[in-house]
Amino acid sequence: MTERTQGLDEGEAARRLALVGPNQLDPPRTRSVAQIVLATIREPMFGLLLAASALYLAVGDLAEGLLLTLAAVATIVQVVFQEARSERALKALRDLAEPMVRLVRDGVERLAPSRSLVPGDIVLVGEGQRVPADGQLIDGELLTIDEAALTGESVPVQRAPGSAGLSDAIFGGTLIVSGQGVAEVTATGPRTAIGKIGAALATLAPPEDPLKKSIARLVGWLGLAAGLFCLLVVVTYGLMRGDWLEAALAGITVAIAMIPEEFPMVLSIFLALGAWRLGRHNVLVRHGAVIQTLGGATVLCVDKTGTLTENRMTVARLWAEGAQGPPTPPDASDPHPLLATAALASAPRPVDPMDRALIALACPPADARLERVWPLRTGRLAVVQAWRRGDQSLLMAAKGAPEAIFALCRLAPGETTSIRAALDVLAIDGLRVLAVAEAVGEGAAPDEPEVVRFVFRGLVGFADPLRADAAAAVREARAAGVKVMMITGDYPATALNIARQAGLDVRAGVLTGDDIARLDQAALRARLADVCVFARVRPEQKLALVEALKANGEIVAMTGDGVNDAPALEAAHIGIAMGRRGTDVAREAADLILLDDSLASIVGGVRLGRRIYDNLRRALTYVTAIHVPIAGLALAPVLLGAPPMLFPVQVVFLELIIDPVCSLVFEGEPSDRQSMRRPPRSPRASLFGPRQIALGVLQGLTILAAVLALYLWGLTFMSAAQARAGAFVALVIGNLTLAVTDAAGRDGRLLDARRWVFWTIAGTAGAILLLVFLTPGLAALFRMARPPAAFAAICVATGISAASWAWLSRRMRRPDPRESAPGVGESA
Q1: What is the mean predicted confidence (pLDDT) over 736-743?
Q2: pLDDT tens digit sequence for 416-437
Q3: Residues 657 and 704 in one domain
Q4: Which domain holds residue 522?
Q5: What's this model's pTM, rounded to 2 decimal places?
Q6: Would you call 570 exposed, middle or buried from its count of C-beta atoms within 10 A (0-12, 13-18, 19+)?
Q7: Which CATH number fits the domain that encloses residue 766?
Q8: Strand-strand pairing, 314-320 and 157-159
């Protein structure tokens, strides 16, 4: 390492960071409290509350007008609290998504956040990465860079360090298509070329997804209906009773009761907190809409290296000159010749685990200088490097897939028989195998290595142990009806060995990339019904697998880490990029980023996705259910000629209970114990469609009928204020009972200690009602009077019974076959 590539010391870097600021073009976009408040004020609910307050003040009812004004303020406080919660969750996700760079400081290479870069830093850049800042190449090989983000030119350009014919300048935001190098940062943040022209970095905030749009449309139509009913009530009440002020209040009450303003808030909170929960389980969400898809995945297509295995390569065995043996130790003064050649075909600053394992055992000679690199590419699955030795001779070293090395050595089929036998022995033992070759010559390096005839030197077997949690994750996925497929570029025998250890179904054997190339779409779809292991698969063939699986009706989750994986990640229903070893291109194409590259995290994400989906569906169904009795009880007495039961004060009281119950109780519900023991839901099942609306309406009508009957019955032998009080108690208790029973799901855990939020809200609501009945002034504000004890007891029992019956009818209903896989009698 030269003095220039030692990098800055930490003290100097900190001083420069304080001077020039972080390496960011734009700060993350967040909403301030003031912006949240302004958005809330523009909501129809707030306007209706202010209108009701103004009417009460106009008729001289100061107390009720002030109470409604206080309720409006409480609504704002509640919204601000929930939105601030969502903003904190999104900020945590942005921190997780912070781009990382390979940085050299004090001569030590490490990963660091991109925002910590300062001018003078030394960074390592390579294929598939976004350049983190403007810089100058000082070491490495020829780089091909896509500068379309900066210049608009679609044709990639070439950059090289110290070249007379090519520029050595690289620019932040551009994409490295091929090559790797060492660069010194020259400008960061707004001082970069892209910063000067006002470009902005992509953020985590995705465009509004279809679900949010459909919910917004639903709320819009219901809002329109609420306006029409409001007008109907005002006209009907005014004509029937001649009191137009009371008519206006009755109309506003109906409108407040009918507008389900909780829908968009509940959806936003669930998606934001759901993404945050997934982030805590090492699954970073880039597109919020994928959360509802994740729980419905039917196939997980995963890589072997780093996902099923630890990606912790060690050289386990060598095969050279017909003999197999162990590698020489790291401190050996004279490493095995095969290791020495393999190290010459490895990157001097290795990132790949196999390169690291080789460099740890053998280093290039001190008098050798790297002159040319031919990286891995389609058609040549090998890396070739040319070194100029001290005697000016040229040594070319190659390592890669045995087939590629055989081609470079121009070996006839008969000459590879013994090599293939040794290869099979190593692969059956689960080792990943690379072949090694070399060529010695004079003069300049050739344009392409294929023009040189290489000499075969041997095979290197690498051990990569299975992750400790891989087998358990595969078992859990299979129990959940999710098929796990392993797609790897490794040797077939090695792939089968690892798949067998992980617990994949290997009865159908292995399908290779060559097999895939020979099959048409129909034949491939048929084979995918049985085969779970794919080997020697090229990145572009992943796309064919994804399309075939989708044609079979599967919901596909696909992992990828390379530039060529981007099309498959885009095509999959759920694209998952590797966070540790994935390229920036793969991350940009993916919906999720796996921070630890582990299959267990993917399966955990499926479990969380199912939990979020189930809880969100219950919450939206509950919101629908609870608005039916509120709207009905605000409207029905007016149409029946009875005294109004609900006024704006009572409706606002109920609304202030609904929001926290939905967003806190439903969102915090743990997973159903059976959620990972049932098959994925059908792709045709909607999160909130006609079936859920019908269920909510049915539940709501049950409570409405019971409470309305109570109220009309009470009017026959007591005052309207007493009947109203008893019926209101039944309505509140019915709402709360329905909330806890709906949230409990299919396992029926009603008294779980984790529901302390619900019991806190229920206790608070009960205390307020008790205070209303015991305080004459509050009773007058709520237009209630304490009912007889017997009637109050009947109201409490009716509220519990009505909500419980609604819940039991939901549990006993026949499952919708569209919501679960055929043959399984459980709904999603």
Answers
A1: 80
A2: 999 999 998 998 888 889 999 9
A3: yes
A4: 299-310+467-597
A5: 0.70
A6: middle
A7: 1.20.1110.10
A8: unpaired
